[in-house]
Amino acid sequence: MNQESDSAHELNPLAPTRTRNRTKAMGPASWTPEEDKLLAELVQHSRDWSTIAKNFPGKTNRQVLAHWNKVVNPNIVRGSWTGEEDQIIIDWVAKNGPSQWSSLAELLPGRIPKQCRERWCNRLDPNINRSSWTQEEDNILITTMKQIGPKWAEIARRLPGRTDNSVKNRWNSTLKRIMERESLRKTNTVNTDNTIKPIDTLEQNRKLLEQMLRRQQNLPQNK
Q: Is 31 within 8 Å of 71 (Cβ atoms)?
């Protein structure tokens, strides 16, 4: 990666890089409606995933099984959660802790482990912080995004009470838009040798974010 790309990524954590593009290109191919239909037909006659996978070039038996369990299986319940389902999850976690989601899913017909885990982590966990975001939290989110990129679960671990989903929403709905509307000249300082120096400290982030929020709200700045 050249120096120009490095600088762009430091200024904008979501800026595309060669590494990201290469990773995306190497990922599993998307599924077409025709493939989904074929998979549903094949599963009616066999659950031999290695054999079924041979009908889908470029996809492994694990990918085929995961796609069936998470997407194609007609028994998956995708609607709203009921009070009874929520109570089963709450009782399970009280007894077993937030783990063994596969075993929990067996008690909830039509639900898969991923759904159970996300329901607890994003909605039912009593430790979730649902209050308004503070300036300090925004600072941590901005700084961490610059350091590691959009790794929501890891960022959430640095923000007690915030879920990875709420962190992602905060960035995409508010902070990302504000940052993108600011020019590089306003959001970075320039050294005497004309190289761009990112603003990295929490104090600098705090002042910068306050200025940007005031501009968005058309509020006068305190001198």
A: yes
Architecture of the CATH domain 135-190:
Orthogonal Bundle (1.10)
Is 83-124's fold the same as 135-190's? Answer: yes
Count, residues in the chain: 223
Burial-class residue 158 by CB neighbours within 10 Å (0-12, 13-18, 19+): middle
Supply 171's token pair: 């960035």
Tell me the pLDDT tens digit for each residue of 172-185: 988 888 777 764 54
- Smallest Cα–Cα separation from 105: which of 96, 95, 115? 115
* Contact of 100 with 108, CB cutoff 8 Å: no
pLDDT tens, position by position, 22-57: 333 334 558 999 999 999 999 999 889 999 999 999
Q: What angle do CA 116, 150, 134 make, to 5 degrees?
A: 85
Q: Which fold would CATH assign to domain 83-124?
A: Arc Repressor Mutant, subunit A (1.10.10)
Report strand pairing: 189-190 vs 196-197.
Answer: antiparallel
* DSSP 8-state secondary structure symbol assigned to residue 201: S
CA distance 32 to 10: 36
Its pTM stands at: 0.56
